[in-house]
Amino acid sequence: MPVDAGRRTALLSFSSVALGVVASTASRAQGEAGGSMILPGALTLRELMERLRRAPRRRDFKTVPMILDRPDLWDDTALKDVIACRGTGKQVWDNTDIGSPWLNLMRNSVNTQVFSFGHRDFLAVSATHGTAHLALFRQPMWDKYKFADMAGGGFKTNTLIIRKAAPSNVSDFEDPQSSFGPAGNTIPELQSRGVVFMACHNAIWEIAGNLLAKGVNPDRLSHGAMAAELTNHLVDGIVLTPGVAGTIPELQQAGFHYAT
Questions:
Q1: CATH assignment of 33-259, given 3.40.1260.10, 1.10.3980.10, 3.90.1150.10, 3.40.50.300?
Q2: Is the separation of the CB atoms in 197 and 191 below 8 Å?
Q3: pLDDT by residue (tens digit) across 166-225?
Q4: Which DSSP letter does residue 75 get?
Q5: Which of 65, 66, 190, 212 is the most buried (most CB within 10 A)?
Q6: Of the given ranges (16-20, 107-111, 129-133, 190-194), which has the lowest mean pLDDT?
Q7: Which helix (H) or strand (E) is 128 found in, with range?
Q8: What three-state secondary structure class fits 164?
Q9: Is residue 93 predicted with pLDDT exceeding 50?
Q10: Exposed, middle or buried by CB within 10 Å (0-12, 13-18, 19+), for 73?
Q11: How far apart are CA 91 and CA 111, in angstroms?
């Protein structure tokens, strides 16, 4: 039977393109959902990470009030997505001290729940305030407002937003140099595993107040304007709440277990 070389070439080209599209789509979906750091089969957690990735984050404030009384002043969509998550296990950590082992404790909790008990969709949330909240700001804010002085010894810069672990995948879970070991005790490493970090507007307002009281105000901003600037410089992926202490009960009512 004669072969139509042109038709055969076209079919092969089409197949190659189709396979390329599928591979590209799968790779992109994996990256958007937290990459290989979230175990296969953790469909609920992957879906939440995708929803959070798409949820709007307003970071263009000129000024903010002391008490937030409208949902457009915080990350309302993202917060509701977290509260509504229906995973097999959910834990909220009340984190207040930047010098404490808070990131290590969350990493160990995730490791135990995921690898020991097999809860692949386990969701850990950091309800962050106190000095721990300083870790949620980008380095330019640390430089401008001398946050190292507020953070205490051991923090000349915000090292908690710098990735330190070797490139990892799920098969590396016994490697201490991977994201699953102590090298994974940073905010971006934990975020890649599905941990959600929540910011506290009340903490931001209080930090701004402390700076004003110390005369650390190079641009001579008002209290509301300084709090707005700090809010605009939260690191990527953070979920801004109107106040963490008041948000914890909302999470508990949705089935989150409290930890400190």
A1: 3.40.1260.10
A2: yes
A3: 888 888 899 999 999 999 999 999 999 999 999 999 999 999 999 999 999 999 999 999
A4: T
A5: 190
A6: 16-20
A7: strand 123-128
A8: coil
A9: yes
A10: middle
A11: 13
Concatenate the DSSP letters of all residues of 167-226 into one string.
S--GGGTT-TTSTTSGGG-SHHHHHHTT-EEEEEHHHHHHHHHHHHHHT--TT---HHHH
Q: In this structure, what DSSP letter does residue 137 have? A: B
Tokens linked to 187: 């905010």
CA-based Rg of the chain, rounded to a whole angstrom? 22
Place of tokens 């994974």: 184
Q: Which two tokens stand for residue 250?
A: 């909302």
Contacts of 2 (CB under 8 A, 6+ apart): none
Separation of alpha carbons 74 and 180, rounded Å:
31
Q: Please state which of the ranges 37-41, 104-108, 109-113, 199-203 shows the lowest mean pLDDT.
A: 37-41
Q: Tell me, rounded to whole angstroms, the distance of Cα 93 from its chain centroid.
A: 13
Task: Give burial (CB, 10 Å; 0-12/13-18/19+) of 200.
Answer: buried
Q: Please state, in angstroms and rounded to a whole number, the distance separating the CA atoms of residues 245 and 227.
A: 18
Q: Name the DSSP letter for residue 2.
A: -
State both tokens at 244.
Answer: 């963490």
- pTM (2 decimals)? 0.86
Locus of tokens 């977290």: 82
Compute the distance between CA of residue 73 and CA of residue 65 in angstroms, rounded to an integer. 9
Residue 153 pLDDT level (bands cut at 50, 70, 90):
confident
**Domain boundaries in the chain?**
33-259
Distance in angstroms (rounded) separating the CA atoms of residues 196 and 241: 12
Side-chain-side CA neighbours of 168 within 13 Å: the count stands at 26
Which residue reads 């979920």 in tokens? 239
